[in-house]
Amino acid sequence: MVEQFRAPPFSAKTAAMAGDYLQALSLLFRNGPYFLGGTHGRQASILQHLVMSGVIAALRDTKPRIRAVEVGSWIGFSALTWAHAIDQFAKDGGEVVCVDTWEPYFAETDMSRGAIYADMTELSRIGLSFDLFRHNTGFAPKRAPIRFIRGRSQEVLAAQAPGSADVVYIDGSHYFEEVRADLAAALPLVSVGGVLCGDDLELQIPDVDLATARAASAVDFCADPGTGRSFHPGVTLAVHEALGRVPAVDGFWYVRRTEAGLEGFDPTRGEVFVPPHFTPEMRRQALDIIKKSA
Fold it and tell me: Does any domain span residue 5?
């Protein structure tokens, strides 16, 4: 594993309270990863994960070895999806490189809005989110190991070689300025024929009230007054500014890099894969989705 650009602890008290839970996790969950309880470990939908596997399947004819870079990994659920899909579809395997600080990052305006914000902040503050990530990603397939670089995404991405990634997945902070910076730093990394994608694009411009989106650009999540639907305004604004309207399924968006620039494509028309870290109930639901779309 690689560790670079590690952010300093938020305070001496935070550093003193942080613990290393990796050994305990390996004893408690020795047979597999853990995403349950109050970890908020699985936040993307089952459909999104199926489409993610479709992205990898769509690359297999032109990318025998696939390197995926994930910005924002939390405790590793999506990283395992990428790794298992690479193992399944890429002839020569590959790797997943996860970029995250595993430090608290939510703004004060969001902290009082729901338990998920408080839970994720506390898990990061005490160091448990990082150790859960390390435990869970230890179950990645050998042909597609998961590495990590712990640090601020813009700094880490700037240090990567241009064109060095076949997939770059943006799922870090949802605040507009940070999403915009992540997109700008990620674009040069995508190889020709590779895919730039991300999560949490529930609504796109002009499907939202623009004034509401701009006013909430420093808020994680809000409701659109016109549609009544909740969305991540920072993601909506930043993706629109950088890319315009993009293909998206259930919040997961994707574009492919060509010699001429970026273009949409459809990874849902090819083969998909149900990752083995899905629970039995998730697997049943995934198989139902596949059956209905056949």
Answer: no
